[in-house]
Amino acid sequence: MQIPETNPQMANIPMSAPSLYETDFYGWTQQQVDLIRKQQWNQIEWQNVIEEIESLGKQQRQELRNRLSVLVGHLLKWQFQPQCRSRSWLATLRIQRRDTLRLLQDNPSLKSYLDDGLVEAYENARDLAMGETDLPEETFPLECPYDLEDIFSNSFYPGEPSELVNRQ
Fold first, then answer.
1. CB within 8 A of 25, min separation 6: which ones?
2. Which of 20, 48, 92, 111 could bridge 28 with an S-S bond, Cβ 3.0-4.6 Å?
3. 59-69 exposure pattern, b = at least 16 Cβ within 10 A, e = fewer
4. Between 64 and 160, whose confidence is greater?
5. Contacts with 86 (C-beta within 8 Å, 6 or more apart), sequence order
6. Mind spelling out the 3-state secondary structure of the chain?
7. In this predicted model, what pLDDT tens digit does every residue of 62-107 receive, in sequence order?
């Protein structure tokens, strides 16, 4: 496909070919790893490497927020819609607790982000609970009613006691 030339002054400016970073991200990552291993520092695309490392850190924070959203959303459902509790809800709570704690174990510096992450995650948790229960918005507190210790405790299930927990 040819691009029509609309500006004659642009006709003599060569268009650069897309870089490997733009056309084959995986191939680019392997190339950069090889260059680092060979210590060929001047050939490394530092700006792109820096951006990707920053992006990886942001992804870990997003992963923490997502897990907290699902975990707290299910705690809200558990508390405010006890008649609908199920083994599936119980399994989700246990899995999300376990996976979130593993994420924090693998990334200990994320612990410093937990308080802010919970505040950010709670909005989504509340929306999840409202959407899955059809309970009115005012049912759910505007701020997270649980502290982090309770959220991660395998013995914390808010609201009235449940036989589902006792059977396990």
1. none
2. 20
3. ebeebbbbbbb
4. 64
5. 164
6. CCCCCCCHHHHHCCCCCCCHHHHCHHHHHHHHHHHHHCCCHHHCCHHHHHHHHHHHHHHHHHHHHHHHHHHHHHHHHHHHCHHHCCHHHHHHHHHHHHHHHHHHHHCHHHHHHHHHHHHHHHHHHHHHHHHHHCCCHHHCCCCCCCCHHHHHCCCCCCCCCCHHHHHC
7. 999 999 999 999 999 999 999 999 999 999 999 999 999 999 999 9
